[in-house]
Design goal:
The chain is an all-alpha fold. It has one domain. 81% of the residues lie in helices and 0% in strands. The relative contact order is 0.18.
Length: 123
């Protein structure tokens, strides 16, 4: 079935925003890890909450936008010249990205715990 122009533009925009969400997710988790390193004893609770919202919101968009992207992949992104060889490349890319995401979100969770512990400390 041939896509309409509106569908094609919607898929294109979804893909752009999916990539942007990946960037926001990665950046927020890197910042969380850096804050833990620079302020291990008493990180800002406000900064922790903000980074957490950015990270989890970005992850939600990565998953939702990724589902749309996967659904339309064959029609809009499949490279005939790469053939089936692109499948293991995509699997390898996603295994790496999932590992980075788990590492990053562990930093977000550690930052939240450190911020909560800092709020409960006297002085």
């Amino acid at each position: 079935m041939r896509a309409t122009m509106a569908e094609a533009i919607a898929v294109m925009l979804n893909n752009y925003f999916h990539d942007l969400a990946v960037a926001f997710l990665f950046a927020s988790t890197l910042v969380a890890r850096r804050v833990l390193r620079l302020a291990p004893g008493r990180p800002s609770a406000e900064l922790s909450r903000w980074l957490e919202r950015v990270a989890w919101g970005s992850l939600a968009w990565v998953i939702a936008g990724g589902a749309v992207r996967a659904w339309f992949y064959r029609e809009y992104e499949w490279l005939p010249s790469a053939g089936r060889a692109q499948v293991p490349a995509l699997v390898a890319k996603h295994v790496l990205l999932v590992a980075i995401t788990v590492w990053g979100l562990a930093g977000i969770v550690r930052l939240r715990r450190a911020a909560r512990e800092g709020e409960n400390r006297p002085g």
